[in-house]
Amino acid sequence: MRGDDEFGxxxxxxxxxxxxxxxxxxxxxxVVFISGMGMSMxxxxxxxxxxxxxxxxxxxxxxxxxxxxxxxSLIAKRMREGSEGTWLVRAGIVIAxxxxxxxxxxxxxxxxxxxxxxxxADGTTIVAETNLRQRRAPDAVRSRVSAAFMGVMHxxxxxxxxxxxxVVPWLGPKPTYLIGGTTAGLAVLVLMRMRRYLELDEAAxxxxxxxx
Length: 212
What we know:
By secondary structure, this protein is mostly helical. It has helices spanning 9-19, 21-42, 44-50, 54-75, 84-104, 108-136, 142-171, 173-210. It has 8 helices and no strands.
């Protein structure tokens, strides 16, 4: 990374993301993930209505996810350096399974429990992603890399909200969750490639440290 990149603004952040295959692949995985799961966030209130749970049920769904996410973040303190790829893949599988489960659930209580489990997995992904971004980006551009990374995610999230305004009324909240679970599953495939890149980088690092 050149010294002038320290003052390169967001361009320096995007440049680093383009050059770092791990973060680049991770960002692509989140774009795939958000394309469907972002829409499911809009479907939460209609989902509660489908189960005749009303506004109170909607509040329970959000509370279940938020509580699970908070606990998942605490569980992630067990995460060891270098294990982030495995955590992300496993959490992605859980999110995909629970998203599909919510889409086919016949009972509100089951959907509520699945939402809590989804939150648990999501909380661990936040920790894993942050660890990777902080460790892989050098000091000079770390904040710019974070800004570029999160900027892309927020733009994609906003886009998925707009699309959800048409998809949720058209298909309904349960099929929307099925779409979210499917895109989460596709994101897992991308995360598996990212994990492979991490393993290759670690192997190269160890080989370099052992060289005379």
